[in-house]
Write a structure and sequence with these properties.
mainly beta; seven-stranded mixed beta sheet
């Protein structure tokens, strides 16, 4: 059974940094693309970053380019999101997601492409 568990969220001042982790259970993690999404109150869930199964391709939302970095460690079945220069508008619940279509060369940006989701971790950025 596939489970995703996020950690690393919290309260940080504007300009600060946080590192989110997503630990995956279940088989074949190394074959799957992974994504990070976020959802602020009253807003739809939006794509933040994605990474291909082999880490050769990373893609980002325009709003986080140059500030956030996605990475993965297949040996540990873990995906990371390093968030720097945080802004109040980054405040949201952050979710990791797993797309089990094997060996995708790029992680999809649509949430409907993902098969499994974590429970989310709250990130709050104060001004």
């Amino acid at each position: 059974q596939v489970q995703l568990v996020e950690s690393g969220g919290g309260l940080v001042q504007a300009g600060g940094s946080l590192r989110l982790s997503c630990a995956a259970s279940g088989r074949f993690f190394s074959r799957d693309a992974m994504g990070w999404f976020r959802q602020a109150p009253g807003k739809e869930r939006e794509f933040v970053a994605g990474i291909s199964w082999d880490s050769r391709s990373m893609n980002y939302a325009d709003s986080v380019k140059g500030r956030f970095t996605i990475s993965r460690d297949n040996a540990k079945s873990t995906t990371y999101l390093q968030m720097n220069s945080l802004k109040p508008e980054d405040t949201a619940v952050y979710y990791c997601a797993r797309d089990t279509a094997r060996y995708l060369t790029a992680a999809p940006a649509s949430p409907f492409e993902y098969d499994y989701w974590g429970q989310g971790t709250q990130v709050t950025v104060s001004s």
